Each structure stands twice: as C-alpha cells, then as structure tokens.
C-alpha cells in the first residue's frame, strides 16, 4: 500500500538536506501483504472506495481532495474531541458558546491534518504538465526502469486513464497547436532567437562547464516530485518556520550570476528548495516603484514578454510587482515594527509608505485589484485592503479602502455569498459565476475583511493562464 512519508530521506545516499528534511514529503509503496482486520487493511478498504467514487465522478469533480493523505492521517492522528455541529437559523442570534464550539471543531479537524514535523501537507495539482517531461527524460537516458518501480508506473497509468477525455483518441485540432515554426531556421544565424544558436552553445559547453555546488539547493530524487507527491508546504508551525529559513546566501558573486540575496528569507517550499520569495522576504525584493515582486527585482522591460515561448504561463519572462507580495511584505514589516520599534525605523516607515502608494496607484477604478495568484479580483481586494491597513489607513481616511468595500458589496450575491470564476484571471476582467454557484474561497476572503470535506473549485491561478486546485486553500480560509 502507499504511505505518505514526512521529513525522511528515504535512505538515498545522493540526497542532502540543510534542515533535517523538515517539510519534505513523498509517497512510498510497501508491497507487503496487509493482514485482514488490521488498521492498514481498513485504510486500504477506504482507499478502494475513494478510488471507485473518484472514477465514477471524475468528469464532474476532477480533484482527488487529498483523500489518500486524509485517510492515512485520520488513522495516524485521530481527533480526540468530538463536538456537535452548530446550526444557526437566519433569524437566530449567534451566541458565544456556538462560536467557541465551531472554532474548537475547526481546530480539532485541522490538527488531524498536521504532519508530525509541524507543517500541513497539501496537493499541488499540476502533474499533467510535469509527469510527461519526467517520464520522457527518464526514457531517453535509459533510466526508466531504474528509477520507477512497477507500482509507480501502475499509478501513473491509473492517473492518465482517470483523466482521459471522452474522445479517447486524443486528437486535437491543428488550429489549437502553436509549435515553433520551422521557418525560424531561415532567419539570419547571428540573431539570438535562431534555433540553431542554442543547440551550438549546448554542444560546445557540454563537457566544459564548471559545476559549482550550491549548498542551498540540494540534489533531489524522484520521490520528491513524482506521482502522489504533495510538493508545497501550505502551512507551518512556528517551530518549523525556523527550520525552513534560508541561513546562507548562494555561493559566488551574486551580481555576476544575476542572483539575489537569500539569507534570512523563507522559500516557497522547504529550506532545501532554497528559492526565497517576497511574501516572506520583505525588504530585500522592494522595487523602485515601491512594490514587491516574487523571486527577484523587476530587472527589465515588459516588452520582453513578446519572446515568452510558454503557453502554460503568462508574464514569466521578467518578474513584476504584485499587490499580494507587496501587501504581505507590508504586513510583515508592520508586525516587526511593533516588536522592534527602534530597529531601522525610518527605513521601514519609508518602505511601508511607498508600498502603500504603489497599492493605491494600481487599484482599478471600480475599487478592485487584480490578484495574480488566485481567483482573482476578490482575492486581490483582500490583499489590497490588508496592505493599506498595515500602513495605518482605515475606511474613514482612505478612499482606496472605501472603493474596495464598495466593490465587494457590489459583487455580493442575494444569498449572501461571493462567487468569482477563474476566467477573471485569464481575461483580466471581473467574471463572476452564475447562480447558484459560489466560490468558497471568495466568500471567506470577503468575511476575513470584516470542517469537513470542501468544495475544491479552481481557487488558485498562477501567472494568468494556469488554473490549479490547491486543497489547503479551502482548509486555510475556513479555519
């Protein structure tokens, strides 16, 4: 049976870590036959039922809801408190006891999903554009059977069959393809976009390059990515946050390699990932316009996006300042300022002030902000308002906050909920779901400005074009 392994090295001599594998997750298959009546046999029975249910409903509910992990954790880390569900009628007043009971139920449920090293695992739903490249590469180098066990291959085939579309044959209309035209070879060879240019450089540098080991980015084996993996660290305890911090800059001349400082920052995933982002880094990634980008400073011009070869992601050639990253950095600096009011006070005040000006400048006329990392204008409004509040502004002294509140109120349904479509991200225009559908995350975001199994809608969209269902997003916002 498959089991999710947490904070383990898997016994590989090639795997190194800077923090004892904290936050690392991979699925391991145990071929040992499970005896009848054992706890593991009960888990297998539940998994088989979950798989059958998923297969029967795969065209209506395409996300697995992390059920394999949740079934395993429900046995390993069961809830110790069973509290009754609170139901309140529309005309009934909510009491303090009802609120307390609801919060205790949510905390109890959330605690069962926490791994023993302190973080909350969660599925990153993008294997269809990751798995083929890995399999093809292993096949080319002749390592397919050496790296992938029979169980791995079986599960990969199961995934592909379950997500196969109804046409079966898989043909796609030619008008939907956008390949690199062969006429590119007719261009003058001196142009840097000539396809042969890169091929020659790769050939010349195949055995000549000096490999410099980067101690902040480890060599990783296939379990970290393949199959049932949950690659993103969606939440952490304070103890684990210390283990995830990057403690050293990359070796060598950072300017020469166009690298940014990383010491003292937190990466997108584990410390072994080693690539910090501004949501946690704050001051180091501030741009000249006061906004914060993701991984690095905005170093070039937007017209370079004309050279973007990717159809999966948009706006990836250079890094841009985002309302989410800017707001997160402002909130972090505001909290730090309260704890250490004497440390670089003027610099922090100036940074927050300029960031607030940036957020106000990019606000849309209707009071919304375009959110780049989730769906979308409702999500952006949350970060915009929280950032302005971190700068000391409120509803009475800031027209931006008033406009944002008007936007949220104008989009509220008659039922009291909010529902925004992922098309808002792609079209960059507010597109809201038709009744009776609602987006759980949108509804909870709106409530934040003022347990069980969830609706795993497409709540996350990265870089304009790619919609991904992140299981922990719904869990986060409900709690």
TrEMBL record:
The keyword Membrane applies. GO terms for cellular component: lipid droplet. PANTHER family: LANOSTEROL SYNTHASE (PTHR11764:SF20), TERPENE CYCLASE/MUTASE FAMILY MEMBER (PTHR11764). The chain crosses the membrane at residues 129-148, 444-463. It comes from the Eukaryota. One of its GO terms (molecular function) is cycloartenol synthase activity. Its EC number is 5.4.99.8. One of its GO terms (biological process) is triterpenoid biosynthetic process. Residues 284-427 form the Squalene cyclase C-terminal domain. Pfam families: SQHop_cyclase_C (PF13243). Belongs to the terpene cyclase/mutase family. This is cycloartenol synthase. Keywords: Isomerase, Membrane, Repeat, Transmembrane, Transmembrane helix. InterPro entries: SQ_cyclase_C, Squalene_cyclase, Terpene_synthase_CS, Terpenoid_cyclase/PrenylTrfase.
